[in-house]
Amino acid sequence: MSPFSEIVTYHTLLDPIMHARFYHPAEMSMGQVLELSHENKHHATRVLRLKKGNPVTLFNGRGGEFFGHIDHITKSSTTVRIESYHNKECESPLHIELAQAICVNEKMDWIIQKAVELGVTCIQPVMTTRSIVHLSDERSSKRLQHWHKIVIASCEQCGRNRLPDMKSLITLPQWLSHKKTNCSSNDLHLMLSPITTQSLRNIAAPSLNTNVALVIGPEGGFTEDEEAAISQAGFLPIRLGQRILRTETAALAAIAALQALWGDYAGS
Q1: Torsion angle of alpha carbons 187, 192, 195, 197, nearest 10°?
Q2: Full-model pTM
Q3: How far apart (Å, rounded) are the C-alpha atoms in residues 160 and 76?
Q4: Which of 38, 136, 153, 227 falls between 20 and 30 A from 268, CA-CA?
Q5: Do residues 150 and 8 make contact, with C-beta atoms less than 8 angstroms apart?
Q6: Per residue in 212-251, pLDDT tens?
Q7: 3.20.20.70, 1.10.340.30, 2.40.240.20, 3.40.50.720: which CATH number matches 3-86?
Q8: Homologous superfamily (CATH) for 95-262
Q9: How far apart are CA 185 and CA 257, in angstroms?
Q10: Torsion angle, CA of 179/181/184/189, rounded to 10 degrees?
Q11: Are 51 and 78 contacting, i.e. CB atoms less than 8 angstroms apart?
């Protein structure tokens, strides 16, 4: 089973009465009766087996969540009546942008799913010299739609009410050029490297609401030219321990370490 299949079916492992939670991108208000999307309707009635009167939680990705209950179910539609709004947030104070070198489908899906759970603000797929996967414009567009669904499903599962920004695939030089012209002097730029001796503990703690950009290489690592270009763009090389990590391990271990040191796990 692929990681994406795990995301789609996570609700089946939980109590549907307590954990029915859906992304609904439209504006919502108390007392409103709204119709679930075809996909959410199918998941609510065919997978979770929800019935009329069962409680649900809806969020539109812009903060906060709405509580309500299943109001009506027919073969063609399922409606929800909104009863209350809760200004609940669970975002990290650390704004992390993950620039991940594109890798094979299952690994990329896994990285996106877990990065969302760990609290990243933005995910930027990048094409590198040693990237195994090469996508045409059409395939890239389809993959972006697929990745966006993973982001949504991950937010439904982990309780986030704001959708991380899922960017379109670009080349590493394009991304570095963008960072050079659009970053603040307070931003922190980090690159995982197996040859450096510097660790996160050697770096001064960033100030509140600092933007952290983290770039992770592909299965075969960055080339020497790419590492030089990344360093010239102001990125600090860091290493996590004494072992060389796979690309899917490196990304998640680095995000978890950032959150533990400076983010929403710090001091807990």
Answers
A1: 60
A2: 0.87
A3: 29
A4: 153
A5: no
A6: 999 999 988 999 999 999 999 999 999 888 888 899 999 9
A7: 2.40.240.20
A8: SPOUT methyltransferase, trefoil knot domain (3.40.1280.10)
A9: 23
A10: 20
A11: no
